[in-house]
Write a structure and sequence with these properties.
heterodimer; A: alpha+beta; 2 domains; seven-stranded mixed beta sheet; four-stranded antiparallel beta sheet; B: alpha/beta; Elongation Factor Tu (Ef-tu), domain 3; Rossmann fold; six-stranded antiparallel beta sheet; 34% strand; globular
């Protein structure tokens, strides 16, 4: 840890100036339409000051009280995923000449240096998984371009939501890796750690003073308390065997009777990577674009093949989602696809709880 | 490899109508250097792109050593395959590939080979039959089984009849329903397995077809003492990207486009017949 490391609250605006001076546009948490979203922000007063989030199955509400903190909440519906895996983008274009000849050109990825402020440990873990999916092997050029421009400023989580269970998946609440810079928020200000040369450059521009041992201890205690405050848990970090051994478990039908197959869970999940690809005509008739967009295994077309839909009912679709997320990921990526952010629980319109469903299938203790 | 992410232009050199709804398109890549460098293994597939309509995964059915052209046999069933199979000689399309793991032809060398197919399932496997018959001396006995719903669905019938005349080669064909002049069997191909006189420990089986047919044949082969590691199947799921990114082709933990589409029964057998998987 570099020293000095303490940034008083009244000097926090200097971080925005430092990021600008280093050439980054800043993306950070702000309140829009009753939720915390990660959008371009330029100053401290756009941060969610004195805001808390109340989350429960099927419920998300922001409340305001007298505290002075900017990061006293858990998360919002999205964070890093849309910044790297674009919800919709053109992959390549085909042009047809008057003689019928075809030409193909890859879309040129556009990316600018982006600093993301307020990244949670769960979202860093999810980003590491998306990196493996889109960058290992033949890297996706658009993802790679955007990923390479990200400067990540984590804020250790001190206010988990009721739906959070990152302690049980091993992904939080402390951000251990995958960031450039990490902040601990205390009432009086911030402790700052740098984990990259780029972060050292930003830190050089901050009016830092020495942090006391007592401050470091208090920051660590708050994160430890955040882990203890979580009462939801997955029954195990590896449910691969038990899920694939129970493909005909009656619980699949039971959850299907509640599930609306709306795909909210897959939209808010920071690790879900399924995407659909289709053609889109352009106004000039001689060109057609090949477009990729987020897809959901809860849609009928996800399993469509030559006139047949393989997963015709919600039972099969929910089973696909859960067996993939908590089972198939172990084969594909060496770990579960769940980072414990709890978004799928909060944003499910009927409040289906992944920890409860996993426990019901696994026969162990959930929640 | 032509391209993993962006197609290359290809030309339809010849179009062969195999049956009322099945055609073979014989293709050449428009860039001669690209065409020269295009290599594939039997059982691999390409993504074929029809301008403005979309891409579909289609097996390559020609022999890997025929560098002149490469062939795709297509059944007109969907939004892309219908207009794709209507293309005529001279038309242009896009090709990405080849993708996937093909048939275990190295492992099968020196052994007896059973090839069992159903319906259009014969298309991805006929490339294997051609491959084996051209290199006949490298393999033991060859048994070719093909089942169709109706005898009129039988494409490449004269080809099967020609193979039946080859030494040490047995051809067993069956139709659920037979029209006139059908000299072969009526019923399921599983009923013919007894006639194949397989020697379990020196046979490699390869099959393709509807899942129900593959489950039935797998059960029969296991009953005859064959090991799961010697029984190979090719699977089908929706595919959008062919490089393991879109998530559509998953069957259990497998990405069919990358780890398959050809699997042995030890890898995939337990996932067969699970409705909606």
């Amino acid at each position: 840890m570099s020293s000095p490391a303490y940034l008083p609250r009244e000097s926090f605006g200097a971080l925005f100036d430092a990021l600008r001076a280093e050439g980054y546009r800043c993306i950070g948490p702000t309140v829009r339409e009753g939720a915390i979203v990660y959008e371009p922000i330029e100053a401290v007063d756009e941060l969610p000051r004195a805001v808390r989030d109340e989350q429960a199955p099927g419920r998300y509400r922001l409340t305001h009280d007298g505290h002075t903190r900017y990061f006293a909440w858990a998360n919002g519906p999205q964070a890093l995923k849309p910044r790297v895996f674009a919800p919709r983008e053109v992959l390549w274009r085909a042009r047809r000449g008057t003689d019928g000849a075809l030409g193909f050109e890859a879309a040129a990825p556009e990316a600018e240096p982006l600093a993301v402020l307020g990244v949670r440990a769960c979202d860093l873990a999810a980003l590491a998984l998306q990196d493996r999916h889109f960058l290992d092997g033949v890297a996706d050029p658009a993802y790679a371009a955007r990923r390479g421009q990200l400067f990540l400023i984590a804020v250790h989580c001190t206010h988990p939501a009721e739906t959070c269970f990152c302690a049980s998946t091993g992904d939080g609440p402390r951000a251990e890796t995958g960031f450039d810079m990490a902040l601990s928020e205390l009432d009086e200000g911030f402790l700052v750690e740098a984990a990259s040369a780029r972060a050292e450059a930003v830190m050089q521009r901050l009016p830092l003073t020495d942090a006391s041992d007592e401050q470091h201890r208090r920051a660590a205690d708050e994160v430890d308390a955040a882990a203890r405050a979580q009462h939801r848990a997955l029954p195990s970090r590896d449910l691969r065997g038990v899920l694939f051994d129970n493909l005909e478990h009656p619980r699949w039908q039971e959850v299907a009777a509640r599930c609306l197959s709306c795909g909210n869970c897959t939209s808010v999940c920071p690790t879900c990577f399924c995407n659909n690809q289709q053609e889109q005509g352009t106004l000039e008739l001689a060109a057609s674009e090949h477009v990729r967009e987020w897809d959901s295994c809860f849609s009928a077309q996800h399993s469509y093949i030559h006139g047949i839909v393989i997963r015709t009912d919600t039972r099969a679709r929910y089973r696909q989602w859960l067996t993939h997320k908590l089972g198939g990921w172990h084969d594909q990526f060496g770990r579960s696809g769940c980072v414990g952010c709890g978004r799928c629980i909060t944003w499910c319109p009927v409040g289906i709880d992944i920890t409860e469903e996993a426990a019901a299938i696994a026969g162990g203790e959930g929640r | 490899m032509i391209g993993t992410r962006v197609p290359a232009e290809a030309e339809v050199v010849e179009r062969v109508q195999e049956s009322p709804d099945i055609v073979t398109l014989r293709l050449r890549l428009c860039d001669p250097a690209l065409h020269q460098g295009f290599e594939f293994a039997p059982g691999q597939f390409n993504m074929l792109y029809l301008y403005g309509v979309g891409e579909v995964p289609i097996s390559i059915v020609s022999d890997p050593t025929d560098s002149h052209l490469f062939d795709h046999t297509i059944r007109a069933v969907g939004r892309v395959t219908r207009p794709l199979s209507a293309l005529h000689a001279g038309a242009r399309l896009g090709v990405r590939g080849p993708f996937g793991r093909g048939w275990p032809l190295e492992a099968a060398r020196g052994r007896d080979v059973l090839i069992a197919t159903g319906g259009i399932g014969c298309a991805p496997v006929v490339s294997v039959i051609h491959y084996v018959m051209r290199r006949r001396e490298q393999f033991g006995r060859v048994v070719i089984m093909q089942g169709v719903k109706h005898s009129s669905d039988m494409i490449w019938r004269s080809q099967y009849e020609a193979w039946a005349r080859e030494p040490d080669t047995q051809v067993l064909l069956a139709a659920d329903e037979a029209g006139p002049a059908w000299p072969w069997s009526v019923g399921q191909i599983t009923a013919l397995l007894g006639e194949a006189h397989l020697v379990a420990e020196r046979t490699t089986a390869m099959m393709c077809g509807p899942e129900g047919m593959m489950i039935a044949v797998l059960k029969e082969l296991r009953g005859r003492g064959m090991a799961d590691e010697d029984i190979w199947l090719t699977m089908e799921r929706s595919m959008k990207c062919a490089i393991g990114e879109c998530g559509h082709c998953q069957l259990g933990p497998h990405f069919l486009c990358r780890q398959g589409p050809v699997f042995d029964a030890a890898e995939i057998g337990h996932l067969l017949g699970v409705r909606g998987l």
